[in-house]
Amino acid sequence: MASQLRTIVFPRRRVCCEISLVLVVLLCLVLSTTNALSGSGIPSNANSNIEDASEQLSDRILSPDYYKSVYKNINTNQEQRREISKTGDDADVFDIASKAGGRTPWDIGNNRPQPAIVRAYEEGKIKGRVLDAGCGVGENCIFLAKKYGIDSVTGFDLSEDAIKIATSTVENIAAEQEEKSSFWTTPKFLAASCTDVADRHREKLGITNNESLFDVVIDSGLLHCLSKEDADDYVNQISKLLKPNTGRFYIGCFSTANPDPWDNPRRISEDYLRNELFSCQEKWEILACRDCWWSRPPTRGSSTGGAFSLALWVEVRCLEQAKDD
Ligand SMILES: C[S@@+](CC[C@H](N)C(=O)[O-])C[C@H]1O[C@@H](n2cnc3c(N)ncnc32)[C@H](O)[C@@H]1O
């Protein structure tokens, strides 16, 4: 009887032991994973959230109509801006601009140039014939136009209103600047889209032969405003405007490493620049790509950087001139 009992009970006991062992191992695994995640500050359910957020954060752009219209509102009062903000998809941007007191959501005030452009000039990188793509109201152009080593400055922007403001600012200061400095070269401005500027406006850009191509193209916040498709057209146009080999294309754009909560313009990664936008190695060479701080209107700065926000500063060389399609 006793031996019968042993054969019945023991196997059951062994199965129970094995099940308990498996359960204990599983529990340990779950606990150690949770601890590791909480130690790193990542919530255990974070993965799907991160993917969703980066998709939304990196790819949202505003419409070309927004850029055409935003400068119209520069001189409207706060009340009018609030009315405008109720009507469109871009309402949040108008609202933020109003609260910040800036003329546009990127206006850093007092007609100041972007510090990254100033630094690039001081490092001797910006010289000769310069083109400013998406020049807005021309702060960077006017800064460069006063400087030694700059032969000419041309700015273009999609917004006719921005170009009108830039042109009238220059008209107001040109005489005084000419008197003040022998370096002054009066900037020219042009309303055009970066997606077809070379094909449509070669003459207006003063390009008659290879010598009159640009030495430097600067992009202070334009690339991240464009869809991927428009960005491809844009760099193709720039390749038709830059001196091959010696010409340089400098881009300042918001980076995917930027932790700020605002969800436009789109964020740009080094991987996208190297493996998509400038991936044609016979045509482009990325000479440098590094983090930099981008100046923002005071109330639109980063949570960590005051009135600055994390961006990429990119230096690109065009190896050959693109043929007309
Ligand atoms: C973020 S703002 C930067 C303005 C100026 N570069 C600055 O540093 O303050 C981007 C500018 O790009 C212009 N823009 C947007 N799409 C454009 C396009 N397709 N062609 C030319 N300019 C464009 C906008 O009108 C706007 O002035």
Q: How are the elements arranged and paired?
A:
Layout: H1 2-40, H2 46-59, H3 64-70, H4 78-87, H5 91-100, H6 115-122, E1 128-133, H7 139-145, E2 150-157, H8 160-180, E3 188-191, H9 197-201, E4 216-220, H10 228-239, E5 248-254, H11 270-277, E6 284-295, E7 308-318
Parallel strand pairs: 1-2, 1-4, 2-3, 4-5
Antiparallel strand pairs: 5-7, 6-7
Helix pairs in contact: 4-5
The chain binds S-adenosylmethionine.
Overview of this structure, please?
- This protein is of the alpha/beta class and 325 residues long.
- It contains eleven helices and seven strands.
- The model is unreliable at 27-58 and 84-101 (pLDDT under 50).
- It folds into two domains: 60-100; 115-318, Vaccinia Virus protein VP39 (Rossmann fold, 3-Layer(aba) Sandwich), CATH 3.40.50.150.
- Helix 4 packs antiparallel against helix 5 (91-100).
- The protein has a seven-stranded mixed beta sheet with strand order 3-2-1-4-5-7-6, sandwiched between helices.
- Strand 4, helix 10 and strand 5 form a beta-alpha-beta unit.
- The N and C termini lie far apart (96 Å).
- The chain is globular, with a radius of gyration of 28 Å.
- Bound molecules: S-adenosylmethionine.
- S-adenosylmethionine binds at residues 64, 67, 106, 114, 134-136, 140, 157-159, 162, 193-195, 220-222, 225.
